[in-house]
Amino acid sequence: MQNIEEPQLTRFQKQSIALIYYVTSRPYLEKLLTKLDDLIQYTGGVVDLADQQYRDRVLLQEGWEMGDTSANWSTYAYPSLLDFRLGLIRIIEETKQEKYGWTPAYNTARMLGEFQPNWMSEEEEEGFKTRFDELYRLCSYYDYCVKPPRSWSLYILFEVTKELGIFDHNVPKLKIRTNIRVNSGEIIPKTGVYIPIGDQYGSPQFAWTHQESDTFERGWLEKCETLNALGKQLFSKFNEYTAWIPSEELRAFALENIKRKKIVDDWNYMQAENAVQIELAPSLLANNVFSGVDCSWYFVELVEGEFEELGGEGSDIFVVPDLKVLGGELCPRTGFWVLSNNSDKRLFFTKGTSIPKYNKHWGDEYWVFDGDE
């Protein structure tokens, strides 16, 4: 089995790692705060205008309940935006300690959902909704990186990169630190993005070192989201880009595997029109081609202030080293392992068990991961 000592990253891996570093950065969080301030200012202006126009008096005279007034909304809903702001400021400050918490976006959305903006005009309500929905979506990208389960699939990485419109042509310079290697669930030595070793399609993951003094919680590496058997079949025909772009070929693949009962048709996909099937094929497949696995990881360092041009998609060949373990060490991933100096020796080991060392008189003896089947 080929062993490449100097790992390199694919085009898609570079885009994915750059994306994760971007959405967990302080400038990104400050951008969220700016958008939240704009939302608060807009909402305050609408409330003031409603007061000037005596809208509440009109609503009550027409038989609306007190809960439908701007006064009620200002008293109970508007403060949640101010709490959102305080929470976001706290998160920004805590990143100085390499501590990463969830934004209040979800809780704020639930709070606001309890109050109907009937006192707003259609235009004002649309202005509020547009601003809040954008902020919520951008917050979710950060939250996805720090809130369990934190491993984005290739599909989500592709969709978010496309939606943000970044890293199409160049990315920050990245360096794989092969001297920083950890397993899923272990304490990490450095905050940042890690990449799975020996897994061509495993998603990168963000982890951090901070730990609360009175808890065991920290941002360690969780299971890696990677391709299952159906996913490997999909990627024998497509790649990280073409697998998520609607096409007749994807539709045919989805239909074939529904018929083979590899995909459960709980979307009534078979009954949909041809155009709908084509449009839904990427998301349907994304729900069926990934699974979480434990693995070993390398730290990927962000080289501040340096950038590199991206090559074309045709040169996107993944060349990270094979996942290997010294004889005598604990197994980091359940599956089949091959002895590096004897390819006929292929055994199944369970995560956490000791991998044997057969030739005690030799030097280093490696076992190389050879798949789940």
Walk me through what this model shows.
The chain has 373 residues and is of the alpha+beta class. It has 4 domains: 11-20 and 150-225 and 293-309, no CATH class; 23-146; 229-288, no CATH class; 323-369, no CATH class. The chain has 11 helices and 11 strands. The chain has helices spanning 11-23, 26-52, 55-61, 70-76, 78-94, 105-112, 122-146, 154-164, 229-235, 248-259, 274-286; strands at residues 170-183, 192-196, 205-211, 218-219, 224-227, 290-293, 296-309, 324-326, 335-339, 342-349, 366-369. The strands form 3 sheets. A 5-stranded antiparallel sheet has the order 1-7-2-3-4. A hairpin with a 2-residue loop joins β9 (335-339) and β10. α2 (26-52) packs antiparallel against α7, α5 packs antiparallel against α6 (105-112) and α10 (248-259) packs across α11. The longest helix is centred in the N-terminal third of the chain and has 27 residues, at 26-52. It is globular.
Provide tags for this entry.
373 residues; alpha+beta; 4 domains; four-stranded antiparallel β-sheet; 39% helix; DUF3396 domain-containing protein
